[in-house]
Amino acid sequence: MNTLSYGLLSMLSYAPFSGYDLMQKIQPFWPAKHSQIYPLLAQLERDGYIQHELVVQPDKPDKKVHSLTDLGREALSQWLSQPACPPVTRDELSLKIFCMNEGDPVDIQRLLEQRVEYCREKLVWFHAKSELFAHKRMDSSPGIVLLMRRALFSFQSELDWAEWALKELRGEG
Amino acid sequence: MNTLSYGLLSMLSYAPFSGYDLMQKIQPFWPAKHSQIYPLLAQLERDGYIQHELVVQPDKPDKKVHSLTDLGREALSQWLSQPACPPVTRDELSLKIFCMNEGDPVDIQRLLEQRVEYCREKLVWFHAKSELFAHKRMDSSPGIVLLMRRALFSFQSELDWAEWALKELRGEG
DNA sequence: ATTGCCATGTAAAAGGTTACATGATTCC
DNA sequence: GGAATCATGTAACCTTTTACATGGCAAT
After folding, report:
1. A3-80 is classed in which CATH architecture?
2. pLDDT tens for residues B7-37?
3. Which of B13, B104, B165 is closest, CB to CB, to A101?
């Protein structure tokens, strides 16, 4: 079973969800399109890790609500006990900065400004989310609290770097 | 042309390299195996972006040393002027932390300790590299300096987070 | 009216990993 | 003697993206 499959089981460890919900929820951790998720859900059901119930909705399309079976829960905890694969990041910006000598310095500055903006947006989003959890006492599990804080750490450090890099390029270093 | 192709052109903007060299050099920015790189190099040559020269080595296997053509250099600077795709990260650890309720807390602590170790190793490596550049006055281009610093920023923030998370789990928060 | 969200699926293409294949040299 | 490095390639497989396909409801 591949990592995305375990990812789907991970999401379902909280509550039953539709494929559509799962697709949205898994994005921050393991980006995937619906075309990849629906077939995997069918496979997970064939293999006995999940089951589904058809929920008829009057205003919206019917949906399949998937939930973990005992076998699925077992598979999850067994997977948790094994070491995690090293993270993989692919960022076009790195490559562009690497060969920035080849282009117009203004292009590189624009790229960095875009990255600054991107990080700021992410930070606003995560700050809003974590305030929701703090104030309104939402269903914040220990895992989500850890991941939230990591996102804040990592986007902040990327933002700091990008701003520093812009200063360097403008000769203010 | 895909991003890996531009990545290869980016590496070649510094100097001519063999496919084997390129495979190693591109790893930090855009992980790829040799089986993906060799066919792409052939294609880039067919399309006129690079050319190669056969270099015979007495002690080691012969190699093809690839270099940018004018067309390749043009393609690079045109690519630099366009916005970069958003970065993509896939980290199994995120998923495991997300559903950590399902498993033994000791498993999660072990995973975080492994991540701490991983970050420390990376930091040691990047610090060594950047000292090399600083002291021995190596061929440090502006791009490489920026990327080096980013690596230090990002691994440090991941390390800080993982150590904070371990404290939280041990109830020292 | 058109865009966007909800909801599910399949098919084709592109991107990426693992395995197969070869062979000399160097280091332990 | 066995593993690691250098060096290039192909084939099979798995993963991921893009495109095809459908259709109702809500909001601007």
Report:
1. Orthogonal Bundle (1.10)
2. 999 999 999 999 999 999 999 999 999 999 9
3. B13
